[in-house]
Structures are given as structure tokens and as C-alpha cells.
Recover the amino acids of this structure.
């Protein structure tokens, strides 16, 4: 039984290697990432390599119903099951005192459209939709245009 599984695994691996481009099979240093780095380079620790803009003003939206971008650094804003740093400023009770925009009324509706007295659990984790503005350039060339109504 083990021998059969071993032969099957070797057969699958050989089949994958045959279908691989020569650069991948022979020399990984010739393969480049979308940012034109060699995939054989030493990997760097994960982190924020682009400066987050602390612009004070949000960049314009590019499509209808795009979640607003965060105009300040947010990498040190913890959002856990028990605590959401974003709500320190953007909760309705705090927004005026902190001179911050209030979170949308849509964040107080559940999946069935019922109004809740607090932020819906499906809207509680801000960073799943709202991202910090960055001056990052596109990874690949594209012809994306903003929606005409937003120009």
C-alpha cells in the first residue's frame, strides 16, 4: 500500500515537473516577481515597506460604493473580538469630540437589514474593507479609469 502511494506521488511530481517552464525547473534565480525581484532572493520580514500617508484628507473614491480610504496610519490600531481602536474616534458618541467622520449608518444593520443598537458583527472588523492610503504604484500596467460620475 505504501509503495503504491509512493509511486503515485512520484508520478504526480514528475508530471508537474514536465509541465513546468524550464526557468522554474532549472534555475529559480531567473524567475522574477511582479515587482521585478528575483524569487530566489532572501525574503524580508513582513512589515510596512511603503509609508502610510497621514494626509488628513481622504483620497477620492474610484468607484461607486468604494469604502473610504483611511487617511492616517493604522498599523498600530488593534481590532480584536473585544476591542476596536477605530471606534475610539469614529463611534457616533466620539466623532464630534475627536473631529472624525462618524461610521456609516449601514454599519448598524445586520445581514437581514435590521437596525442594531451597536455596530454589526459583520462590519466590526474595519480593515476588511477600509485600507490605509498609500502611494503604492500598480503591480502591472492597466487601463483602469475612475467611474465617469466620480470625475
Amino acid at each position: 500500500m505504501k509503495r503504491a502511494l509512493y509511486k503515485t506521488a512520484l508520478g504526480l511530481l514528475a508530471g508537474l515537473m514536465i509541465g513546468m517552464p524550464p526557468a522554474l525547473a532549472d534555475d529559480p534565480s531567473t524567475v522574477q516577481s511582479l515587482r521585478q525581484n528575483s524569487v530566489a532572493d532572501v525574503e524580508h520580514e513582513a512589515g510596512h515597506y511603503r509609508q502610510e500617508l497621514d494626509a488628513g484628507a481622504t483620497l477620492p473614491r474610484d468607484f461607486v460604493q468604494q469604502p473610504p480610504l483611511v487617511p492616517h496610519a493604522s498599523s498600530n490600531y488593534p481590532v480584536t473580538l473585544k476591542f476596536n481602536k477605530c471606534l475610539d474616534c469614529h463611534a457616533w458618541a466620539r466623532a464630534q469630540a475627536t473631529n472624525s467622520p462618524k461610521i456609516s449608518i449601514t454599519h448598524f444593520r445586520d445581514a437581514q437589514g435590521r437596525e442594531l443598537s451597536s455596530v454589526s458583527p459583520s462590519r466590526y472588523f474595519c480593515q476588511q474593507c477600509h485600507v490605509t492610503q498609500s502611494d503604492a504604484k500598480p503591480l502591472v500596467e492597466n487601463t483602469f479609469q475612475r467611474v465617469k460620475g466620480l470625475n
Residues 51-144 form a domain with the Flavocytochrome C3; Chain A, domain 2 fold (CATH 1.10.1130.10). Residues 2-19 form the longest helix (18 residues). The two ends are 65 Å apart (CA to CA).
